[in-house]
């Protein structure tokens, strides 16, 4: 039986090229394709794999992952995007994406990724895999570094995980933006991370929030 694919991609030409590519092989079939998450959810039928862009009109691909998973717990999702920064990569993985590949990938790599996820694996382009492995690589952890977070630092950690900017955090806690920056610097040092994305992933992974 052919692997069924759903596509959510707002760039018409690219979406049509995906439909043409996938439909050219008897092992794959396109069940539906839409330009927005809203249309896809409204007309949703479960497929083996969804190819999901991130930058979309209305709901983003990152927001859509959980919505599709709620439609079907077994729904497999591969992010197909131009975004190759660590924030989008880790947010997608944290939200439940089964794969993350770039639009500049070859047609063969896109088809291979669909097959990998269908078979129960994780599909990552080499660059994405490198970033994930670099973050998950064991580090020399300072004893009790997480437990050394102050009450204020824990408050800010929660707000960072909610996607708030430094300005919004400062307003919410009635402190200066510079004070927020100082707290965040301390959080980075204690958790041994270097970016907001790493903070969020580590906070969830180690159940700090």
Strand-helix topology:
Blueprint: E1 3-8, H1 12-23, E2 28-34, H2 37-42, E3 49-52, H3 61-71, E4 76-81, H4 86-95, E5 99-102, H5 107-118, E6 123-124, H6 126-136, H7 151-161, H8 166-173, H9 177-191, H10 196-205
Parallel strand pairs: 1-2, 1-3, 3-4, 4-5, 5-6
Helix pairs in contact: 3-4, 4-10, 7-9, 8-9
Would you identify the regions where 5 or more consecutive residues have pLDDT less than 50? 138-144
Major sheet attributes: 6 strands, parallel
Number of strands: 6
Judging by the overall fold, what is the CATH architecture of the largest domain?
3-Layer(aba) Sandwich
The CATH topology of the largest domain: Rossmann fold
Instruction: Give the radius of gyration.
Output: 19 Å
H-E order? EHEHEHEHEHEHHHHH
Offer a few descriptive terms.
six-stranded parallel sheet, alpha/beta, Arc Repressor Mutant, subunit A, 10 helices, 209 residues, Rossmann fold, 2 domains
Give your account of this protein's structure.
The model is unreliable at 138-144 (pLDDT under 50). The chain has helices spanning 12-23, 37-42, 61-71, 86-95, 107-118, 126-136, 151-161, 166-173, 177-191, 196-205, and strands spanning 3-8, 28-34, 49-52, 76-81, 99-102, 123-124. Helices cover 51% and strands 14% of the residues. The protein has two domains: 3-136, Response regulator (Rossmann fold, 3-Layer(aba) Sandwich), CATH 3.40.50; 151-205, Winged helix-like DNA-binding domain superfamily/Winged helix DNA-binding domain (Arc Repressor Mutant, subunit A, Orthogonal Bundle), CATH 1.10.10. The chain has 209 residues and is α/β, with parallel strands linked by helices.
């Amino acid at each position: 039986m052919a692997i069924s694919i759903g596509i959510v991609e707002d760039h018409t030409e690219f979406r049509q090229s995906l439909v043409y590519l996938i439909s050219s092989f008897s092992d794959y079939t396109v069940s539906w394709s839409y330009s927005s998450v809203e249309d896809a959810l409204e007309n949703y039928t479960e497929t083996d794999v969804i190819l999901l862009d991130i930058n979309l009109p209305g709901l983003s691909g990152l927001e859509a992952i959980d919505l599709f998973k709620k439609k079907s717990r077994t729904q497999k999702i591969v992010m197909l995007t131009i975004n190759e920064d660590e924030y989008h990569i880790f947010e997608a993985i944290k939200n439940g994406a089964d794969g993350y590949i770039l639009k500049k990938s070859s047609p063969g790599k896109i088809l291979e990724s669909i097959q990998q996820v269908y078979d129960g694996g994780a599909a990552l382009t080499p660059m994405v895999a490198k970033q994930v492995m670099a973050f998950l690589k064991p580090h020399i952890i300072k004893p009790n570094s997480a437990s050394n977070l102050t009450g204020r630092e824990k408050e800010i950690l929660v707000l960072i995980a909610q996607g708030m900017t430094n300005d919004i955090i400062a307003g919410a806690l009635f402190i200066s933006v510079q004070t927020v920056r100082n707290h965040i610097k301390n959080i980075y040092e204690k958790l041994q991370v270097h970016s907001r994305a790493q903070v969020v992933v580590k906070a969830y992974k180690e159940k700090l929030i």
